[in-house]
Design a protein that fits this description.
Length: 285
């Protein structure tokens, strides 16, 4: 059993399965719905725990009544929360998501962590007593920089989930071992995959990958570029697919080489896309 620390965003997700995204002033009746905790680091932690490991989420939660839903959901998934702002009374970030029935595409509106940034001095030293791997999603940048530095000092592998570029990422990236980025991740002055690989390589990151949805994953490792195939499926819901990918990758990279871990993570994420919501796939796998 491995122990993972997942640093970043904790949200409450309200997810609806609908025939389409509503037009202006249109009302739709959803075919299904789900309520769960969400956020890149959080969903990755849930996946990591589901694969038989211990997972802790480090984020800002607080004590607003809504947070009881977050805590109950994560407890049921076997995920521990370390709250960076336990006295916060404002509601946690809430995401509203519409998943289109026929395509699995999702539309998301969220406030993310822009109003709940926490200083790095809130991190307790005892967190490091039982950590085998760290994942950082960039939504708590000050805490992430400190975590990345400590991980490097303690020889703990650190993974960055590069969903999109966020100011301050340049202070984190030079301390991580792997950067797994989406096709929408563009550091300053980067316009394509070639630019992104060059930028991250110059920071000394040994293992870099860029995902492209259902298309092959591009990677750059030890000066060599390559691709990893992604399973072809008929998606029902692509919500959280990248997060699930990162959680599975954290598990597999502790046992296997980089490209094999990418392939195994893609397999898990593709399987999850065949179920509605971010939890139902776990009942089958």
């Amino acid at each position: 059993m491995y122990r993972g620390l997942f640093v970043g965003l904790v949200t409450l997700d309200l997810v609806y399965l609908a025939p389409s995204v509503p037009e202006n002033n249109e009302k739709l009746v959803a075919a299904d719905y789900a309520i769960a905790s969400g956020g890149p680091a959080t969903n990755a932690a849930v996946t990591f725990a589901h694969l038989g490991n211990q997972a802790t989420v480090l984020g800002a939660v607080g004590r607003h009544p809504i947070t009881q839903l977050l805590r109950a959901d994560l407890e049921s998934c076997g995920v521990t929360i370390f709250d960076l702002d336990p006295n916060r009374t404002e509601p946690p970030p809430v995401s509203s998501i519409i998943v289109t029935q026929n395509t699995g595409d999702r539309a998301v509106i969220s406030i993310n962590a822009t109003k709940s940034q926490i200083a790095a001095d809130k991190i307790p030293p005892e967190l490091w007593e039982t950590v085998d791997i760290v994942l950082i999603d960039g939504h708590q940048m000050a805490a992430s920089e400190k975590i990345a530095r400590l991980a490097r000092d303690k020889n703990i592998p650190a993974i960055v989930d590069g969903g999109s570029w966020k100011p301050g990422f340049e202070k984190v990236l030079s301390f991580v071992d792997c950067a797994i980025c989406s096709a929408n991740f563009f550091p300053p002055n980067c316009q394509n995959s070639e630019d992104v690989f060059a930028y991250l390589s110059e920071l000394g990151i040994a293992n870099i990958a860029i995902t492209h949805g259902e298309k092959p994953i591009e990677y750059f490792r030890q000066g060599q570029r390559g691709t990893v195939a992604v399973p072809q499926i008929e998606p029902l819901d692509t919500l959280g697919a990248g997060d699930i990918f990162h959680g599975a990758f954290c598990f597999h990279i502790l046992q296997q080489d980089f490209t094999t871990a990418l392939a195994e993570a893609a397999r898990v994420a593709a399987y999850a896309c065949q179920f509605f919501g971010s939890r139902r796939w776990m009942q089958e796998l």
